[in-house]
Amino acid sequence: MKKVLVWLSGWVDSAVSAYLLKEAGYDVTAWFMINYLDETNPNCPTKIDLQVAKEVADFLCIPFFTFDYRKEYEEKVLQYMYEWYKKWITPNPDVMCNKEIKFKMFLDEAMDLGFDYIATGHYARIVEWHLLKWIDSTKDQSYFLAFLNEYQLSKSLFPIGHLEKKEVREIAKKIGLPNADRKDSQWICFVGKVDFKSFLEKRIEHKEWDIVDTSWKVLGRHKWVFYYTIGQRKGIEIWWLKEPIFVIKKDIKNNKLIVWTESDLALYSDILIMIDVQFIWKNDFIFPLKAKAKTRYRQADQECEVLKIDEDIFEVRFRESQRAITDGQICAIYRGDELIMSGIIS
Question: Has 331 been annotated as catalytic?
Fold first, then answer.
């Protein structure tokens, strides 16, 4: 009997995953990761998630363990997030958490303990060690798994990858899972519902910068420049301008946040460079490569051509101009439903 260590998060997706694996005949053990704990924050989700995960494990009659990864999460995910914000680059902590914690530390520890696989409640598919989109493209999570490799996928199971979300809920309710009606989390991975500005303020020194238009006319001042992303509208209130304005560029050298209207062509581009590129499995792709790309989660696939510049540097040329391509985010490259390569937008 194959042994599987399931990351039991407290949410319905991983709970149903554990149930399906047990029904399929696997020897299932549940593992809850303590990655972040803020004793001063009443909204810190860890204690609640832990309690719910325990209830699910008890309900399913499977062994349950907790492991404290707070130190490693601080070093690998939170520090990365802080440092990138300091440089005015928008990070992607969910991708980094998957790369460094869930499918590295968690996986390595599971292998050391003699398990055959790890399993999570991700909405994506693994077919012969290849990573494919979930059947519902509107909520597909393959983008957040873009930095995984062939070995990690060969040791991982996504038991609900063939199910629609409503089917997962139906299974949970049918068998009476204690978290069957628990709403999905929409917050920072493992950190939960927080005032994000206050969260960043604890680690990042802030001061006021100018908000300017594309002709460098000063429109206002703001002390949260590092927090803004390209294309953002929310939080930029210049009361005397009739049209809504958006972040066009962040000028680090001159400490300027450059904004203007949606029609400004500077908000659009048909080319990006991605660095630190990696392929999910060994490949024989010939470049230039016709493919499709995503530069953010839930974006519709965009037709493109990928050109190789160096071993881990590639250029992506889009058929149509893309809005708000953002440094630090992930560009994921697909052929059909399969995610084949990815890199950091630079």
Answer: no
Condensed to tens digits (0 to 9), the pLDDT of residues 10-51 reads: 999 999 999 999 999 999 999 999 988 777 766 677 888 999
Indicate which residue of 44, 97, 304, 331 is catalytic: 97
Token pair, residue 162, equals: 């063939």
Place domain 206-263 in its CATH homologous superfamily: Adenine nucleotide alpha hydrolases-like domains (2.30.30.280)
Q: Would you say domain 268-345 falls under CATH 3.40.1010.10?
A: no
Domain boundaries, the chain: 3-121+159-175, 206-263, 268-345
- SS3 of the chain: helix, strand, coil, percent, to 5: 30, 30, 40
Half-sphere exposure of 337 (CA within 13 A, CB side): 15
Rounded to two decimals, the pTM is 0.88
Closest alpha carbon to 260 in 228, 239, 233: 233
The H-or-E segment that residue 111 falls in is: helix 106-112
| Of 21, 112, 102, nearest in space to 69 by CA | 102
Fold category of 3-121+159-175 in CATH: Rossmann fold (3.40.50)
Distance CA 325, CA 231 (A): 8
Q: Which candidate in 44, 189, 304, 331 is catalytic?
A: 189
| 189 is annotated as an active-site residue | yes
